[in-house]
Structures are given as structure tokens and as C-alpha cells.
Fold this sequence. Notes:
By secondary structure, the protein is of the alpha+beta class. The protein has one domain (11-174): Aminopeptidase, CATH 3.40.630.30. The protein is built from 5 helices and 7 strands; from the N terminus they run βααββαβαβαββ. The protein starts with 11 loop residues before the first strand and ends with a strand.
Amino acid sequence: MSAVRRPREDDIVIAEGWRPGALGTIVALLAAYHCPRYRFGPAFETKVARELAEFMNRYDPDHDRLFLALQGERVVGGMAIDGGEEKAGTQGARLRWFILADECQGRGVGGRMMDEAMRFLEQRFARCYLTTITGLDAARTLYERRGFRLVEESEAANWGAAVTEQRFEWSADHC
């Protein structure tokens, strides 16, 4: 049996914009990560797929970004900045769908993706928020290092199992 090669950080580039198959891969990565760990069911996967598709259907390069971690042509991670709510004058931009393939975690790739997202945010937005769940400590560290602060926690069972949902916010004037 051969060992699975863990990609080196420099094997992976962070790219902006859609690539064929990227949306399906992001949905699959999110489901493969969250469903077994948190006992999330099909409601999680279908909601992610629907909302990611809706985001791409209304994608506006002045307000939105899709960041992909690519190893060659293979999508191994993704993240989006959804500026739709800011454009509508509501809650600011939203960081969404942040995921890396298991073999790419702990390699600095997530930090590089966050840095690209922050450059976009700092150029265009005064504030941003994200929602997540407790237990994703590596991601939380990345958020907090870039100025996101935990502002709310609440219990929820939206996805089939009880979790603590969290809301983090970033503001340009608090960096």
C-alpha cells in the first residue's frame, strides 16, 4: 500500500474566481468534513449547495470573491467573500464556505487564503461577519489573528445534531 502524499504548501496556489467543478468540490469538502464529525445530515449539504449556487448566480466582481486553493488543476479548498448584504445595505460582507481538504490542513494554506480574503475586504468593506460552530479551533485562530471577534453564541440543531453556533465580526476601524 502506498502512502498518501501530503501536498507541500508551495504546491498549492490561491486563485480567484470560478473553475469548472469548483462549486461541487467545495460542497463535497464541506459535507465530508462536517457530516461525520458533527453528525450533520443532508440538510447541511443541500443548504450549502443551494446557497453557493445562488451566490455564483448573482456574483458581482465589485462586491464578491471566490478564492480557491488549487493543487495543479485540482481544487483542494475554497472560501468566499459575499458582499451581497453590504450591497443591499444590511450587515456588511460575509465570509463563507471556508474549507480545505484534510490533507492540506495545517500547512499554512488556510492562512494564505485568509490573507487574500482580508486584502479584498480591506479594499472594499468597512465590516464583515462570519458564522461557524464551536470546535473549529484552527479556523477560529485564523479569524482572530486577522481581527475577527466573537460577538455571539447560540445553541442550534439545524443540521441534525446540537451545536453551538458562533458569529464573528470584523470591522476596519478595529484592526
